[in-house]
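Try this one yourself first.
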């Protein structure tokens, strides 16, 4: 990770299936203690498993400070399975 806003203590993150938005892939809140990685298993989500076709998935991530204020947001999108 890079460009993390100063004062960040937590990330809220969740996965959205852009081609089936009603399916809940999950996500969670992760405490941030510095560094550039989130530990494996830090939150629960259902990995992509599209029904016989390529679909688009998006991670939505918000940085949150000690007062609960959102200090930054980002998104990243990927097709799966990767062809």
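Now uncover the answer:
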């Amino acid at each position: 990770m890079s460009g993390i806003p100063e004062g960040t203590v937590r990330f809220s993150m969740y996965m959205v299936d852009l081609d089936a938005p009603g399916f809940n892939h999950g996500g969670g809140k992760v405490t941030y203690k510095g560094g550039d990685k989130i530990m494996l298993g830090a939150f629960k989500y259902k990995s992509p498993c599209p029904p016989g076709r390529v679909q688009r998935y998006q991670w939505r991530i918000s940085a949150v400070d000690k007062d609960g204020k959102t200090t930054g947001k980002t998104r990243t999108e990927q097709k799966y399975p990767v062809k």
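Discussion: The chain has no helices and five strands. The mean pLDDT is 92.
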